[in-house]
Write a structure and sequence with these properties.
The chain is α/β, with parallel strands linked by helices. The protein is built from 14 helices and ten strands. The protein has a single domain, classed as TIM Barrel. The strands form two sheets. Strands 1-2-3-4-5-6-8-10 form an eight-stranded parallel barrel, surrounded by four helices. Helix 10 runs parallel beside helix 11 and helix 13 packs parallel to helix 14. The chain is globular. The structure holds (3S,4R)-3-hydroxy-2-oxopiperidin-4-yl beta-D-xylopyranoside. (3S,4R)-3-hydroxy-2-oxopiperidin-4-yl beta-D-xylopyranoside binds next to loops.
Length: about 375
């Protein structure tokens, strides 16, 4: 009898241990995955750097394979990298990125075709060193779009055709694209893109579109494309470096962004989400924290880890935002985080270099943060 009791206790303890280890926090056992929790709402994406797909960061790759249904190229499809000098295309990293997405049956987003950053200056210059004329620049734009989109035709599902064409006041940014080609550079880019891959979704993408003034600028872009019967499928509000404060941005402004575009019959996307918990640092943009002790103390307060209070605020803020997204899930096609885990977020080096930032759902040890669990819980709550 005693032996039987001992055996029962032993079996019970074994089962308990098995259950606990099974529900541990290693990412492989997180159930359900984010992409499954949100499958009836929208795609859940992450921006990937090359290390995630080239084998150098297998833990990050594992998180992506498990948790995300969409991927965006963080850098490898930008003009500077994929087409660094005339006629010289560097496709290997972009090929790896696309292969990774195909292998895992993910929705693949190409980022980006026409932008003013990470864009080499040769594009705008002739042999004499002066700006080229409109026709030459249009021909270069067309060649680039046809070559890049053509290579990934039928593989990349959607493209950020034009990125950040607006200034903060909602008027068109005075980039070389605008000053050399004129205002129709946007519709030309979309026309070329549609010709290059008629099945690909085409997007306009920008930051601060939650600001009503800038949002109106994007509304004008979409209306103009539609008036000319040029294809546009969705508008991406980057959601870059949103803050813990519930007013930055406010629910009202996010809702205004969503409603403005759904009224035009195009989808909304949040394409580059990351929440900045560090002090605002735009006055020190470009500075390197490691070389300046005073800045280090002021602008980089959480070198040794995120205090629990801030961790909880971050979790709460993520839940708040995903609650708004879920309430609008019929109007939103995708929410993408700008990175996989805190260690490789670009907020560690922008707008100030050398900071320790905590903007994502997975920490530096690849573990899910409290924010991961509140986002997950939000998916299971009735909107
Ligand atoms: C950022 C990348 O994350 C960095 O690695 C790179 O050094 C600079 O660009 N808006 C965009 C993205 O559309 O392409 C930018 O990505 C972040 C801001």
């Amino acid at each position: 009898m005693k032996l039987k009791k001992f055996f029962q206790v032993f079996v019970f303890a074994f089962l308990l241990l098995a259950a606990v280890s099974c529900c541990g926090s290693d990412t492989a056992s997180l159930q359900p995955a984010l992409k499954d929790a949100y499958k009836n709402d929208f795609l859940i994406g992450a921006a990937l750097n090359d290390n995630v797909v080239n084998g150098n960061d297998p833990n990050a790759a594992e998180i992506v394979e498990k948790q995300f249904s969409a991927i965006t190229a963080e850098n490898v499809m930008k003009w500077q990298i994929i087409h660094p000098s005339p006629g010289d295309y560097n496709f290997a990293p972009a090929d790896r990125f696309v292969e990774f997405g195909l292998k895992n049956k993910m929705f693949i987003v190409g980022h980006t075709l026409v932008w003013h950053h990470q864009t080499p200056l040769w594009i705008f210059k002739g042999e004499d060193g002066n700006d080229v004329d409109r026709e030459t620049l249009l021909a270069r734009m067309k060649d680039h779009i046809f070559t890049v989109m053509g290579r990934y035709k039928g593989k990349v599902n959607g493209w950020d055709v034009v990125n950040e064409a607006l200034s903060d006041d909602g008027r068109l940014r005075r980039s070389k694209w605008l000053t050399i080609i004129g205002e129709d550079f946007i519709e030309k880019a979309f026309e070329f893109a549609h010709e290059a891959d008629p099945d690909a979704e085409l997007y306009y993408n920008d930051y601060s579109l939650e600001n009503p003034g800038k949002c109106q600028g994007a509304v004008r872009i979409v209306k103009n494309l539609q008036a000319k019967s040029v294809r546009i499928d969705a508008v991406g509000c980057q959601g870059q470096a949103w803050r813990l404060d519930p007013g930055s941005p406010s629910r009202k402004d996010i809702q205004n962004f969503i409603d403005s575009f759904s009224a035009l019959g195009v989808k909304c996307m949040f394409t580059e989400m990351c929440i900045d918990v560090l002090p605002e640092a735009f006055n020190n943009a470009g500075a390197d924290i490691r070389a300046n002790a005073q800045l280090r103390d002021e602008l980089n307060p959480y070198v040794d880890g995120l205090p629990n209070k801030v961790q909880q605020q971050l979790a709460h803020r993520y839940a708040e935002l995903f609650t708004i997204f879920r309430e609008n899930s019929k109007k939103i096609s995708r929410v993408t985080l700008w990175g996989v885990y805190d260690g490789t977020s670009w907020l560690n080096y922008w707008p100030v270099r050398g900071r320790t930032s905590y903007p994502l759902l997975f920490d530096r040890k690849y573990q899910p943060k409290p924010a991961f669990f509140t986002v997950m819980k939000t998916a299971q709550t009735k909107p």
